[in-house]
Design a protein that fits this description.
CATH superfamily of the largest domain in chain A: Bira Bifunctional Protein, Domain 2
Number of strands of chain A: 16
CATH architecture of the largest domain in chain A: 2-Layer Sandwich
Largest interface: A-B, 101 and 101 residues
Number of helices of chain A: 13
Distance between the termini of chain A: 50 Å
CATH topology of the largest domain in chain A: BirA Bifunctional Protein, domain 2
Strand content of chain A: 15-25%
Helix content of chain A: 25-40%
Structural class of chain A: alpha+beta
CATH class of the largest domain in chain A: Alpha Beta
Oligomer: homodimer
């Protein structure tokens, strides 16, 4: 036990030191708050599931993306890969859950994928789903909630791209995948891909044209009417994009993807209706519609647009200890400040020089410092120092400084 | 893919449906809030660590308690077993972290132990630690914070049992383990155990007496003086217990354990000073003191003492949809209520009978329902129904009902 252990984080995994963790918590709380405003309640499921549960949806060929292993009881288990499979399991396992079941779930998931910029093996998923309601009001509510969420985070040019999977009926999946890329790679490249996948040039062009010109389905018309009633503007807040496909096969109806025009590095989340997936567990159809917020992408976008609070610590003030004989006064003042809802640190060593204590406050980005020297103590005062401006003022001991 | 998947949770793992998740979140938020009041910032580390990191502290014989496996890249990895090892790794890996480093960490840990009542294989750990400060003010702050935490949760008879590991210098660990049990099993059984472990009867009795009569160490005296200065009462809020040992070998100084006299089923958390552990990673001494809140135990205790809010849903009101033609009015009202910070659900199907909608509110324990029928709509009113009392009243459409 005396050999030194090399400290390292696994590739694709991240430590979140306080400055990052504070930002992430800020975002999580904002989202939770708005989810609850719409009547969504929290759900939590275990990190480990039976491998059969995980493989049931993705199939055996997916086991390379899963963290699977045998536990000490020889059970084949695996780490949560998404939050949709656990949700489906929950719906099936607890049959008496009141439906529609509206839940949010914010937990990490694990994927044994190749790492690349912005791709991690452990990342936070942030999902909202409505299970057990086939009415379009559920789809509308999800989109309304998504738009309100981004607005509450400070995003200004959020737009929901919307399509109906019914637009792709009788079209081969491999062609759909190419057509989906239209906004990214342009028409010429889509045609090239379609040709590579076996279509003749004319056929490729006519297939693309056919899809580009698809009229809105009945469901889209109704959804758009609800969105307009709520004050959203077509083509600004939401837009019909008949080539939008979204990768996952399990969508059955409306699908949506969110972008912000101030952030070009990719979509900030996506979702849609999947009325057949939960049936894998329940053995009977169970309509569902949901949305997954791309947490890391949103953090990145919010950071690049300066929407995140620039907080390095939650601490508002450091109470210094001038000398051992004055330490107990400092402790009392700290208690008073905390009682008045001010996040307060006390310097934890009575023998440190004041200079060292001020340096500590600076390093930790604590905005204010309180000093109680012998003079201040005698006059029942405390000195409040603004660490940014250097400004100092004397205030009464029993007053809340801000 | 057409075979039904059997839905089941692994033994020792738990789903938290909304009613439980809401309670847990309430507790987590209370604790975070008070941790931040004392200047502790959040830290998060990955679920997976290198196996060598995990085994470095616990030794090879611990691998039966760990979830270890090989990842796709043939790395030996394992699930987080506690939050102290990751903390030690962090301190070593990011040498420029400002010290004292005060962090809280609230994440699940995984232990492949035998399950029994109140023991799980996945459970939430909730730790506060101060790293890099050897002054007793750090120990004092931890205890002060612990007492304030339990008070803020509504516990009334919280008591911190305190001892100094220096009281056990030169005494064999196996004897200490028996003496530690004194409050639980009584003097007679302790003596029996000591005899079984090889002491003669006289020696056993005199060893126990010797420890029971140990005078307070200098550190304990100083700590008690600080606690008294802060208004805590000896033997009520805190007490010297010279037989307290706490299992873990790595403690080096003061140790503490929290009980509440209204709850007899066990301690609610424990901690102490461990000045040598982090050195396993850093290769140099790094003083540290911390405390782990027993999250599940606290939930259980708080539940038995009726300290948890009796909330089954976060939703405050359900806005019903009287008929398809009135649906859009309901959606507008819901938006208005949400803007005014009321957690509001809309019934998501315009064709459901009102009766069904009220039943849904009842099942979900939503306390209020709003109804806008043709009459109300015409007069710009809405009907507010208290689902508990049955009381109904008409209010203006543009007013916040509570």
């Amino acid at each position: 036990m005396s050999t030194k252990i090399t400290p390292q984080t696994l590739k694709g995994f991240r430590d979140f030191l306080p400055d990052q963790a504070i930002k992430r918590n800020w975002l999580i709380n904002k989202l939770k708050n708005i989810f609850e405003k719409y009547g969504f309640d929290p759900l939590e499921t275990p990190a480990l599931e039976y491998a059969s549960t995980l493989l049931g949806k993705y199939g055996q060929e997916a086991d390379k993306l899963l963290y699977l292993f045998e536990d000490h009881g020889k059970r084949k288990v695996g780490l949560r890969y998404d939050q949709t499979v656990p949700l489906a399991r929950i719906i099936s396992q607890y049959q008496n859950i009141t439906k529609p079941f509206k839940r949010y779930q914010i937990q990490p998931v694990w994927r044994a994928e190749n790492t690349q910029k912005g791709r991690y093996r452990e990342f936070l998923q942030c999902d909202i789903d409505i299970v057990g309601e086939k009415s379009l009001y559920a789809d509308f509510e999800i989109i309304d909630l998504v738009l309100k969420s981004f607005k509450s985070l400070g995003f200004k040019k959020t737009k929901v791209l919307i399509n109906d999977r019914k637009n792709f009926q009788n079209i081969n999946n491999k062609f759909i995948n190419s057509i989906d890329k239209l906004p990214k790679i342009g028409e010429k490249k889509v045609i090239e891909e379609l040709i590579k996948k076996g279509l003749e040039k004319d056929k490729a062009q006519s297939l693309l044209n056919e899809i580009k010109n698809k009229k809105k389905t009945f469901d889209i018309e109704k959804l758009f009417s609800l969105l307009k009633n709520q004050g959203y503007q077509e083509n600004i807040d939401f837009i019909y994009l008949p080539t939008l496909a979204r990768g996952l096969d399990y969508y059955t109806g409306l699908i949506f993807e969110v972008i912000d025009e101030d952030y070009q590095a990719g979509s900030l989340g996506g979702g849609g209706r999947y009325d057949n997936l939960i049936g894998l567990f329940t053995g009977q159809d169970m309509p569902a519609v949901g949305f997954a917020f791309g947490f890391d992408r949103i953090i990145e976008a919010a950071e690049s647009l300066n929407l995140l609070p620039n907080i390095k610590t939650n601490t508002q003030v450091l109470v210094t200890i001038f000398s051992p004989d004055l330490a107990k006064i400092s402790l009392k003042i700290a208690e008073f400040l905390r009682k008045n809802n001010i996040n307060t640190e006390v310097y934890l060593n009575e023998e440190a020089k004041l200079d060292k204590q001020l340096k500590y406050a600076n390093k930790k980005n604590i905005p204010y410092v309180i000093i109680i020297g012998p003079e201040e103590a005698e006059k029942n005062l405390m000195k409040l120092k603004n660490m940014k401006t250097g400004e100092q003022k004397l205030i009464k001991k029993g007053t809340v400084p801000f």
